[in-house]
Amino acid sequence: SSNRPRTRTTSNGANADASEIRERIRNDLELLTRPSWCDAKFALSRLDQGKATGNRYALKLRSFLHRVLFKFGCWIQRNAAYVLIIGILALAGCCICLKFAHMETNISKLWVETGGKLEEELKYTADKTTAAPGSTTSDYTLQMLMQAGHDTADIDSMTLHLKAAVEATKVTVVMYNQTWSFDDVCYKQSIPSDEDSSISFILSRVFPCFIIGPLDCFWDGSKLLGPNPPIYLNPTMSDLTWKSMNPIQLINIFRESLRDTSIASELNEYYELMSQAGITTGYTEKWCLDPMDPDCPTTAANYNSREIPDVKTILKAGCSGFASKVMQWPLDLIVGGVQKNTSGYIERARGLQTLFQLMGGTNMYNFHKTVKGGPNWSMSRANAVLLAWQRKFADTIYSIQTGESRDELHAFTEAAATDILNEFSNVSTIRVVGGYLLMIGYACLSLMRSKASRSQGLVGILGVLLVALSVAGGLGICSAIGISFNAASTQVLPFLMLGLGVDDMFLMAHHFGEIAVLSYIPFDERTGECLKRVGVSVSLTSVAILSGFLFSLIIPMPALRAFGLQASVVTVFNLFSVLVIFPSILSLDLERRRQNKLDIFFCFDSRGVNDVVDISAQSNATTFQQCSAHHTPVYNCSPLPGSTHPVEETAEATITMHHTVQHPRTPPPRYTSNIDDAGPKKVGPSPNRPRVAFVNTTESSAPGFLCFKRGARSGSMYACLATLPSLTISQLAERYYAPFLLKNPVRIVVLFLFGGILGLSIYGTTIVKDGLDLGDVLPRGTREHDAIVVQTTYFSFFNMYIVTKEFDYASQQQNLYDLHSRVGNISYVMRQTDNTLTKFWLQYMRDWLADLQQNFDEAWTRGHVNASTWMPQASDKTVLAYKLLLQTGRAEKPTDPGRIVRLVLDDGLIPEDAFYNYLSAWVGNDPLSYAAAQASIKPNPAPWKQKRDANLIIPRSQSIEYAQMPFYLNGLQENADFVSVIKSVRSVCETMTTSDFKSYPSGYPFTFWQQYIDLRYWLFVSLGCVIGAVFVVLSIVLFNPWAAAIMALFLAMIATELLGFMGAAGVKLSAVPAVILVASIGLGVEFTVHITFAFITSCGSRRERVVQSIGHMTGPVVDGAVSTLLGVVMLAGSEFDFIIKYFFQVLGILILLGVLNGLVLLPVVLSLIGPPPEVTPTGGGGRLKTPTPPPRP
């Protein structure tokens, strides 16, 4: 191309003379119709000369930004290769930091309000129990064996359940050169023992793992308890196993045979311990499922009769474990889907459940430090063994053949829950890469043209790759600074931020296609000119989006804060890439055009040659005839519809122009002394004006994507296609869509239609339900999904604890009882089969003391004890009670023989002064009750074990700082059920909380579902703050609150419509949809700001400015929307229904709503109540007046 040399460094800078300005005006109609868009300094000069009025403050700020962006763009063009290489290396270096990425799946670290009450409670619980924050207990975890069928309360179903449970207890895994069996990982309650005692060793092996299930109603439940292998005693006694063992009979045999030995007292202690816990005949007197079983004991209820047990009748009262007083299983805990008749008889049960209790990670680590762990034993290894065993457990259950039974076996473990969260949070490489490839393909095709010098296919490919690299780099920096990833950031951010970045990329590429071939702009200033015009719009949207994401950080939810921070960082990276690196790509592509190289295969020359496209009035007729034949997209063959500047057919009006990606919409302006003068004016050409731009007169011969062949024979497909008009999306929108949309009937229909949509959306917001069904998270048809469905349908129960802390427990006993009673009366709190509440530790302690008091009273009556001592015939219980009655609780005088008091007062309370002495005695002498109470008292009580000696002092335990009351919650199906029980329990705790009595609830429901208590509040606060931030930023940057208010209104509408769609489609409101709703504001900015910004920077009436804004912005907006949708569409192929329903559908509808609101409703609203233009010509009109040319010499 031929370009006149220039010395100026800024467009319309101080060195630009008047002739250059006039020359530019002759060639650039947009400078007169969109002055503040093209050159704010020129527009400001029109205001200074009194030839226009407008927003002077906005123009001053815009003028400064234009100057900076122009200089920066020129510098980039001069150093394009260096900028590109350094920029790519910088982004690639940031991507390396992704190796430090941390995936957070801990619910308490994601959805627990930062600085809130729940976080404080979890931290306190973790500190006192040495558990991981957010865990419900550090002692054990539950693994579920579930069976579902038409009626599982019969012999066949119970037999199948027994088979599966027995196989589960045989599971072993080999890790760290050790074989880990069920006995190695299960949870057991230790009993007081003497390390040198053989009896203690035997009993420690006999005490089984904790297993809860319906098999405990039958003798067959003993088959799960072992020990394996059985314990050999002597040739005269059978090996010890729970299948044949009568525990109380066995201990009595030992007591009788060893009563004169040194361990007689120890045996008596064990006898008392077993009696207190209800360990009596074991399973030997229960019904056998199969009375013909050779191992069925002779003492079994149906051994002699050989009667088949009535399973429904036996299950009706619930079951009890080997310690019947402390291990009572309510029917709803072990049998699900129960249907009873009016008399209470079970007609049918749909499910059975057995719970295997494993040690928690901390317990596992501590237990095996000196057992099987070895020198390299660690907490991570302990957790790894537990997870491996759980996975093997699930595999074993699913491998069991059910035979002819129609029942289904299912297993659900903590490992499965962990795997689900990890799998759900992981990024699907196939989906991300597939979505990005679709974006790349669309970007290439949408920017490709038939002529090599006008095609930008490679620019589209590199642009998408650049934005993808920018997103990865931004996330890499987030990883480096310690921002954790979660499901929201891995499933939403890669597509959302790529879509936002690609939108800006398309905007710049489209306008660069127009500017790059403007012959009157010096070649080395064209990138600067593009950046000057488009950079403000790109910066404006990015700053608005960034401010929105930053303001979303006020939400105290860690997951939402992490999302907001990551989105903010990536937004900055995208802005850097689009304003710095992408212009260097455009500059290099500009050089390719000048050298007449092919688009994608830029190493090859194009066979076409550059020529001049003449749009002079003299050649209009000829050109018009050639348009269809040669497929030359010259739209100046005839004036545009509605053009007020007809083309003059005179030889004096010779004006040459070039091809552009988006061709000139109207002929260039003529010089006139007065724009309002009637009649055509003849205009002479400027002798020094450049007339050549690099355009091919013939298409490249590169096959497939550059050209239709001109030489195609008549009637061929090529010839037919060549006759079609070459119209871009923007041209179609300006010529046909905008005039149609602005017809009054159409505008009325649009307003009523969107008003109806908004009304339906508002209604939809009222039916949106909160919650997240775990069944939706898992792929349908998988065993985990089926297990979750069975669990939530038939066994929707959860552990719950009421934590009491930091008060004088001795003086607050009555409040503890009241708290326990009031919580127990709340709906969904499970009761025992006899309708009593689950006992808590103070009740166990009181009952133990009451039993001792009763024994003491009987001994006193018999004369076995008096005020000064006990007699030899006094029992161990009596001696223990005597010592307890002497305790004063005072360090200076710990015992008082003259103290007159009872262990349990008449009002049912324990004496306050000796309360902590009694606590030490209870924990040491009734450990099974203490274990059953699940009290987790901290600091740990000082366990004191009774000895029949003269030492009367019982140590005092430290004051209690932490204790728990256990409850079971059952029947929780819907999210509303969880919210209801959370509110009810917290209401009770808060009502009873005083300065002397503090309590709070704990457990999985309160950790996970607590977020739904305040989720809507924080969501609406976030949306309001984000929209408000966008409004403030746009008002300040544009100095136009009117335009900012319209955009804020549309952002609120998009969010409302999206929330309404969620209600109509059954998408429940949870953390992830909440994140998408916040992100919808960012995507909505892209669809509204560009159109509005183009509207206020144009001159003319509202209708004229709407047409211009649609013409300029429809192409980039549509291309950005389609490319984003193509990226999201890959989610439709996910195996997770949750991803399809909560991500693909929601994001797809969000894009559709953005396009409809931005390109349909927004233009109509702007045409009716749009803000005034930034520049208004004096006297009105759709353009500034053309300056009077200097007189000819």
From TrEMBL:
Record-level GO BP terms: negative regulation of smoothened signaling pathway
Localization annotation: Membrane
Alphabetical keyword list: Glycoprotein, Membrane, Receptor, Transmembrane, Transmembrane helix
Domain SSD: 428-588
TM region(s), chain numbering: 80-101, 430-448, 460-485, 505-523, 535-555, 567-588, 745-763, 1017-1039, 1045-1067, 1074-1096, 1116-1134, 1146-1169
Membrane topology: Multi-pass membrane protein
One term under GO cellular component: plasma membrane
Gene3D superfamilies: Multidrug efflux transporter AcrB transmembrane domain (1.20.1640.10)
PROSITE patterns: SSD
Single annotated GO MF: hedgehog receptor activity
Pfam families: Sterol-sensing
Domain of life of the source: Eukaryota
Family classification: Belongs to the patched family.
Name of this protein: SSD domain-containing protein
Organism encoding this protein: Ciona savignyi (Pacific transparent sea squirt)
Lineage of producing organism: Eukaryota, Metazoa, Chordata, Tunicata, Ascidiacea
